[in-house]
Write a structure and sequence with these properties.
- The chain is mainly alpha-helical.
- The chain has two domains: 2-133, no CATH class; 146-184, no CATH class.
- 59% of the residues lie in helices and 10% in strands.
- Helix 5 links the parallel strand 2 and strand 3.
- The two termini are 17 Å apart.
Amino acid sequence: MIDHLQEHASEARYGVVHIYFNYKEQQRQRPIDILASLVKQLCNVRPESVAVLEDLQKRSQKDNTTPTEDELYISLVELAKAFTRIFIIFDALDECDRSKQRETLLPMCHRMGKDGFTLFITSRRSADDIQESFRAVPTVDIEANEGDIRSYIDNWLNKNPAVRRMIRTSKREEEIVSNLVDASDGM
């Protein structure tokens, strides 16, 4: 999806930015870090927009502080004016810590939507706070079918001959693969 949007972005003057959330990197994915990354990504797309970033930096140096979430958000909105449309993709939002990240990110997402940003958010269904927050928003359930998951596991095993040999010698290959498919829960 990101590739498709970026393919058409320059001709349509779209801004396409994205964040992939990883539970192992939660310390580096605080809401303020997310906003800083989005601002940086937009500046990289339209280098002429760097004046917004320079203003932010001057204010921070003058006050000897780092930019606040509000300042970064205002900069994001200002940068968006250089584009006809902004797409923000948040992939795996459920990987964020519920209290340390999502409590701030979810209202921020709604604010972005109200400010004209187009958001695409992926998450597991098990994240009930995310489900509740976006209950009035159109959703699409995407789930891998059993054949796709089996194919993925088979390809992975073919790339790891030592693991495949170990599984085959155990004479329990089908049981192991079936358990992996079941445990994937459509992911």
